[in-house]
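Below is how a single chain appears once it has passed through the pipeline. First comes the sequence as given, then the structure the pipeline wrote out for it. We keep one example in the README because the format questions we get most often are answered faster by looking than by reading.
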Amino acid sequence: MLIENLFTLFNLLFKMEQHVLEKFNGKTILITGATGFVGGRLLEILAENTSAKVKVLVRDYGKAMRLGRYNVEMIKGDINETEVIEHAVLHCDYVFHCAYGNKGNDETRRQVNVDATVALLNASRSAGVTSFVFLSTMSVYGIENREWLTEEVQERPDATDLYAVNKLEAERLVLDFAQKNAFHATVLQPTAVYGPWAPSFIMRPLMNMQNYKFPLIENGEGVCNAVYIDDLCQAMLKAVLTPIALGKKYLINGPDQFSWKDFYTDLSTFLPGTELINVNQLEMAKIYDSAKRKKPILKSLIGLFKINKEAVRELLQYHFFAQLATWLYKYLPVSVIRKIQPLNPTKNSDSIKKVKKVVLPMDQASITFYTNKTKIDHRKAITELGYSPEFDRIKGMEIVETWTKWYYLN
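Resulting structure:
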């Protein structure tokens, strides 16, 4: 009952012009990646606010719990299977392609993220789909310090960022396909997407704040370009309704500018026992290098505790292993302690809280990301799509706070 009430609260907070939502009544819509964060929220909005028939492509029913609350058509299968895709797009008016494969080797990921996108485009056009939205990312532009970033800037993703590399290749194919076939396909490039259930910018930071001292690189003065999930969904819905969006790409950002210090300071107040700490770039590089050197040793120690638990308890009766256990609880990061905590019945949750937290290590890519001061210019989306972001940081974080207290503290 609590989860139903919580989702009802979020849906009441969702706002969009009624005349926009009405245009989806009676339409048939396919959402790929609906078991994920963005696709899942888009489904909720459509199911709660329209009479659209929504179809979702599901590879694993075990991950579709949130979708089961709605009357949607679940199509079991893999996005790489041609027959599955052709069946999924049948009789659809709109397709929202939110799926992204992040498992397997580089080639396997490319097959999911690039090849499957092309196959979905061809199937959609053949089936008479009216409009197609491909969800990309602002990461395709890479990170260069400039005052403003617009869609006219040359894309230069970090070659080691496979996510951005795959997204760029796929979005170029989408735009080329749209132009050559006069097919209404549009690319959206959101900034950091946050909101309840956001894995990268809400759930992971909250977990890290529980286990580490959370670093604000250079006092968190880098620009946080972030968009609340419902504003992104608004842009997606408007994109399929806008004829001039054919073959175009749009950066999607929130309505206000703020720093990462603002963002993570807000987030840190939602859970007890969190600690933010100012770390400069040089210090963080040293912290990361040190953590990287220790990692093989920590893995070996953790591996010791993955053998039979009764055997470990026997070992703890010997002085050497008892001393080792004491050292582990005293010096290892809380995240590691949590993995081995159940092995020692004399320890309880209070003992974890007493363990001294260490600073969360961040690699060079993260340092660059968090110190960048480029601002996103999304006027093209405002002018052409009629995009009108409703959730500034304060409003968005109020909802995140409500969700956080339900998810972590109940």
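The radius of gyration is 23 Å.

See the next section for the split statistics.
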